[in-house]
Amino acid sequence: MKKLGIAAALLGMLCVIPSTGFAQVKGVYWTASGWFGPFPIAALIPSLPKDRARDVSLPANMWVIDHTKGLVVFDTGNNVAVSDGNCKSHWAAGLCDLLKPSQKREDVIDMQLKKLGYSPDQVKAVITSHAHLDHIGNIKLFPKAVHVIQKKELYQAWWPEKFQGREGGVFVMGDFDGPARGFNYLELDGDYDLFGDGSVMVLSTPGHTLGHQSVKVKLPSGKTIVLTQDAVWVKENLEGYPAGINYSVKDYEASIQRLKMIRDLENAELLFGHDPGQFQAAHRLRVQDRPFDEPGEDELLDAVVRPVPIDRKAAPIP
After folding, report:
1. Inside any domain, residue 216
2. Domains held by the chain: number
């Protein structure tokens, strides 16, 4: 019954397509691999003025794109082993204590797909924004998919620069070793039109890591969205306060400017990698009239994470 409801929602989206050029994407769904925090935002953005200092909890965003040529997952989140308080079985203890992941087993990408009526074996392509632990964590759940990643990012994942940390850092070898080394990788060197119709564009946005990439999507309504992932963590990054973890600040700033130009020239909406306000607004988690950028910690961390459609004309998943 739930699957029929999802199908009906997607059919409703198709009925309002303004032109055939946007018909290729049937739906985009936004979910998260649990939450991080709370911790001081200054730990992530050291240049932020003291009068804007506060504790934050951040979602680990993931995306499901339903295209006529196949199902796409953009980022697979934290490894399943991190779930339900077992972080230190897979991540370094220091990272667990710093990030404080609250991922539940039901938050993992395979369970999120199940809520939409799909299984990992039905996913045609997995796009990985970059090889940090909260974005590449579950690629091993998708052995049959084409894995879309910048070639330089693969190199960085398997042998990061020494200053990035080769032991106990944000590149966790257990996420992409063993069978994952033999996966079918589409190794990119720049932008790429995933299905050849302009509806799902992989954008090279290096800086946060050597080969970071974002995704631009044309929604069924004709609206353009850009899923920035860690090219932009939160809204403050667009205001001139860079993220505190970057491979190259120069490339990071160039990618920020590129995304701003896409926003302004194409009237696109930028959806950031970890912004709690955007996530809370989309998932209707606002509580007690608090601003979206000041989420209620208990309500957010305990809430059931579920995929929601991004196109405003689509109905939410029950």
Report:
1. yes
2. 1
Q: What is the pLDDT of residues 35-80, one digit of tens each?
A: 999 999 998 899 999 999 999 999 999 999 999 999 999 999 999 9
- Token pair for residue 138? 């579950």
Check residue 284 and give its pLDDT: 64
C-alpha span between 316 and 308 (Å, rounded): 5
**Which 8-state DSSP code applies to residue 181?**
G
pLDDT in tens, 184-238: 999 999 999 999 999 999 999 999 999 999 999 999 888 999 999 999 999 999 9
Distance of CA 45 to the CA centre of its chain: 19
CATH number at residue 101: 3.60.15.10
Does 201 fall in a domain? yes
> Under 8 Å CB-to-CB from 241, ≥6 apart: which residues?
45, 47, 48
Residue 182 belongs to a domain:
yes
Mean of pLDDT over the chain:
86
Q: What is the pLDDT of residue 23?
A: 59
* 316: in domain: no
pTM, full prediction: 0.86
Half-sphere exposure of 173 (CA within 13 A, CB side): 8
Range 50-66 burial, b when 16+ CB lie within 10 A, else e: eeeeeebbbbbbbbbbb
Distance CA 208, CA 170 (A): 12
Tokens, residue 55: 């504790």
Domain hosting 143: range is 2-309
Q: Of 124, 116, 120, which Cα lies nearest the Cα of 4?
A: 116
